[in-house]
What we know:
Residues 28-264 form the AB hydrolase-1 domain. By secondary structure, the protein is an alpha/beta fold.
Amino acid sequence: MSQALETGYVAVDGGELYYEAVGSGLPLVFIHAGVADLRMWDAQVAHFSPNYRVIRYDTRGFGRSKTEAVSFSNRQDLLAVLDHCKVDQAVLIGNSRGGSIAIDSALSFPERVNGLVVLGSGLGGFGSEELPPELVEPIGKMQAAQEAKDWALLAELEARFWADGPNQPAGRADSAVYEAVRSMTYENLINQPIEAQAQPLEPPAVGRLAEIKVPMLILIGLLDESDCVDAAKYLAEHVVNAQYVAFPDVAHMVSLEKPQEFNRIMGEFIERSLL
């Protein structure tokens, strides 16, 4: 018997956030990467919704969410989704910037978060300002495409970088993974012309990891760009209750490249640490 899917919009200052919720039980809230939208979690919704309440949403400026040119907080936006869905506590699952949003939110309102799962995650305040030498060329090409407003080329370059991995041969990742990232990125570029300004967490998360007391699962593909790989190791070393899992043959989009393995590892983590 299929479960009823709840969809709608959450009103936030200067915008509205599209969300979907299905299932019942322990709430799991999925936060997408910056080269995606909530559709990147399709395999996880199908896998976890029979046993958990699965919530996902398009962050401001992505997917079907809408925004005005305002200053805003991704953390407050997430809190608005939790409140709208009447969720007191949730496990937050985030990829890339979604991981950074999850970590920042756990630091901002720890009473609402009972677990963290991050994949190829950003970490506020971590890393140097200078690009590693191996990233100068690919990042330069992406910046040139953006300045030229060549959105099709930019989406292709982003997908090659994040799906295949920096300096990996084109086509390393499965074509379906590449196409998913390319198409979601392209749609975001052409459908979200208004740029709102996200407010960073102050002080940043990198110096506050001792405040994280909930169980945390850290996943990283070792073909990801070096800042993400280093951030994952740093998180594992500085968060008390953390589990670290590395995939040697995966880049940035762990849950898209290895959905079954990711679902198994995350499911075991939840059962062991949170139930």
